[in-house]
Design a protein that fits this description.
The complex is a heterotrimer. Helices cover 64% and strands 8% of the residues of chain A. Chain A is mainly alpha-helical. In chain A, α1 crosses α4 (80-103). The longest helix of chain A is centred in the last third of the chain and has 24 residues, at 80-103. Chain B has a single domain (8-233), classed as 3-Layer(aba) Sandwich (Rossmann fold), CATH 3.40.50. Chain C folds into two domains: 1-128, no CATH class; 130-254, no CATH class. Chain C contains ten helices and two strands. Chain C has helices at residues 2-14, 16-39, 46-75, 79-84, 89-118, 120-128, 133-165, 172-194, 206-209, 225-248, and strands at 204-205, 222-223. Chain C has a two-stranded antiparallel ribbon with strand order 1-2. The two termini of chain C are 33 Å apart. Classes of the chains: A mainly alpha, B alpha/beta, C mainly alpha. Chain B binds chain C through residues 17-18, 51, 54-58, 73-74, 76-77, 79, 81, 83, 85-91, 100, 103-105, and chain C through 2-3, 6, 10, 13-14, 76-81, 83-88, 169-170, 247, 249, 251-252, 254.
């Protein structure tokens, strides 16, 4: 695991974000074992208390489960991946909506723009992939 | 009602060198199990503060409590102090320096030493005087981390050494620090890329604390890294 | 106890170089003299001078060394290590004192062995004028013990003077000299003041202690122990004081 920290955001939140990203992209699957707190702390050179806080929060959120003496695992919860995906995208969309509102574009114009960009970017990707 | 015992509790600490007031009534609390940064430019009183705790400098006033007790010989034995100066005997070999330190501390953990020396890339047969500045800094840290000392005080451990040694020292601290039984203060005049080490930070300027708190809370509150906050406070 | 011996070992190792150097010089001087004597260019008496020379310089060097061993700890910043050790101050000072005494003993032994090797005929000749081998061994041991006592007490004065000088920021040299002066005055006065308390102790007849009668020289000299005991107690008190000052009052500069 490698995190390029932006140190202006609490580090434990960035650790949680990174785990969420890996779960959504499939790098981590439900039931996978994640590094122990100490290993992760050593790996990313972060204070062990900070990692502990991130793990505690992730447990509360139901993202991971710690089994006594065995380690910490990504939750087996069926809806987890989809839920996390939706949550992460929702956050991005929220940011987008706020930015659009601040720049004074109407909802319809913004949605049209989104559709257009989707088509253009997908077309470009097809060309590139060929 | 019982109050949690702090690793270190300092109240209204004052110290004056012949004319200069180094500490002007400093209050500081180090909770058990945490690593705190003592930040400030050169001459801000960081070193004096740490020296007062370990007894190398006698405060003019104020209180120091180490795990709830006033400083004593017994408490001295529970502190691992790494000074900024080169405090090792230059004529000793690395092995001799290790053995010498081991003899005086009941909390010495012999099992850790070999691994630590290897991790730091230190050759046991080399003389201290033949080591580079970075290597000597690594050795000083090994001598502190090889103890299960409840309180560790590191004075400018990253100052004036090569980036590789700095990296090793940061990693060594993360690896060895046991938050269940240890607490630590690291003084530094440059936060740089070490800020993810700290639970809390204290900003010391000309003998006065002008900001202190939990590192994550400060990031949240100001929307800035500790490094940027540091630059702002001391601009 | 092992902690004390660790310190002692460290102090001995630290002065290994000058110790070896001085032993070498003493041996070379004796060897040189021996060669000159056998060449006939120097008289037999030169042997006595060659052996006495180190014995004269030795105490001076050791006093310098007792100052130097502390000064180096400060100069090289190793005092940062020493002052944070969870040890009573007197132990640190006693280790340094013991190291000096051991160095003295080692250098004496080197000189004695050198004398026996290089000046065997002269030693034998001298022996013929002395009562017996036992007498020689006995008196040499007594002289050794007395001189060791004197040396140790002088080292204690030096240690105190140095530690006191480190408690002030400026004019350290002046403070050190004043401390030397005051502490020796204190010891002197204490001896005189306590003399009445110890008058019951008989006068020590040194001529009898050293069996000087066997020389049939009719020498009489005595030592009034009553006036010495107070001074000894004073020196002991100074030593304890040095330890307390070192542990609780000395600061590193800056």
């Amino acid at each position: 695991m490698n995190i390029d920290f932006s140190t202006s955001i609490p580090i434990y939140l960035q650790i949680i974000e990174e785990f969420k990203r890996q779960i959504v992209t499939g790098e981590l699957r439900p039931g996978d074992k994640i590094p122990s707190q100490r290993d992760l702390a050593t790996q990313i050179k972060v204070n062990a208390n900070t990692v502990q806080r991130a793990y505690r929060e992730m447990e509360t959120m139901g993202l991971v489960e710690t089994l006594r003496g065995q380690g910490t695992f990504v939750s087996q919860n069926q809806g987890l991946v989809e839920e996390t995906r939706i949550e992460m995208v929702t956050n991005l969309v929220d940011e987008f909506v706020r930015a659009v509102q601040a720049l004074g574009l109407s909802r319809e114009a913004a949605l049209d723009l989104v559709k257009n960009r989707f088509s253009e970017l997908e077309a470009k990707k097809e060309v590139r992939d060929r | 009602m019982s109050k949690a015992i702090q690793a270190l509790q300092i109240r209204n600490l004052r110290k004056k060198y012949s004319k200069v007031e180094a500490l002007k009534g400093v209050d500081l609390t180090l909770p058990q199990g945490e690593i705190w940064a003592l930040l400030g430019p050169n001459g801000s009183g960081k070193s004096t503060l740490l020296k007062c705790v370990v007894g190398l400098v006698k405060a003019d006033g104020g209180e120091i409590e180490i795990f709830g007790d006033s400083p004593s010989r017994r408490r001295k034995g529970q502190i691992a102090f790494v000074p900024e100066v080169e405090n090792l005997y230059r004529w000793m070999t690395v092995r001799q320096a290790v053995d010498f330190t081991a003899a005086f501390y009941a909390d010495w953990d012999g099992a850790r030493v070999a691994g630590l020396l290897e991790f730091m890339g230190l050759d046991q047969n080399k003389k201290v005087s033949s080591l580079s500045k970075g290597m000597r800094a690594r050795l000083k840290l090994v001598l502190a981390l090889a103890r299960k000392a409840p309180l560790l005080l590191l004075d400018e451990p990253f100052s004036g050494i090569d980036p590789a040694s700095r990296d090793r020292i940061v990693e060594g601290i993360v690896r060895q620090f046991k938050s269940e039984e240890q607490s630590m203060i690291i003084s530094t005049h440059a936060v740089g890329d070490t800020e993810q080490l700290f639970d809390g930070v204290v900003f010391l300027d000309e003998g006065t604390i002008n900001l202190q708190g939990n590192a994550e809370d400060l990031r949240n509150q100001y929307g800035k890294s500790i490094n940027d906050l540091f630059k702002e406070v001391f601009a | 106890m092992t902690r004390f011996f660790r310190l002692l070992r460290k102090d001995l190792q630290a002065s290994l170089l000058p110790l070896g150097f001085l032993s070498g010089i003493a041996l070379i001087v004796m060897l040189f003299t021996r060669v000159r004597i056998s060449m006939g260019s120097w008289p037999n008496e030169a042997a006595l001078a060659a052996v006495s020379l180190p014995l004269v310089f030795l105490p001076l060097w050791l006093l310098w060394q007792s100052f130097q061993t502390l000064r180096i700890e400060w100069r090289e910043d190793t005092v940062y290590t020493l002052l944070v050790l969870p040890l009573p101050g007197w132990k640190v000072m006693l280790a340094k004192l013991a190291a000096i005494c051991l160095e003295y003993t080692i250098l004496l032994a080197v000189t004695a062995v050198g004398a026996l090797i290089f000046f065997a005929p002269q030693v034998q000749q001298a022996m013929e004028n002395l009562p017996s081998l036992l007498w020689v061994i006995r008196n040499f041991s007594l002289v050794y013990l007395f001189s060791l006592g004197v040396l140790a007490s002088m080292v204690i004065f030096v240690q105190l003077a140095f530690v006191v000088s480190k408690m002030v920021g400026r004019v350290q040299g002046l403070i050190a000299i004043w401390t030397l002066f005051l502490s020796s005055w204190f010891v002197e006065v204490l001896g005189a003041l306590m003399e009445p308390l110890f008058r019951w102790i008989p006068v020590l007849s040194l001529d009898r202690l050293f069996r000087l009668d066997e020389l049939r020289a009719g020498i009489v000299f005595e030592l009034n122990l009553a006036s010495e005991i107070g001074s000894w107690l004073g020196i002991l008190a100074l030593f304890v004081l040095t330890g307390v000052l070192f542990e609780h009052f000395v600061e590193v500069s800056g």
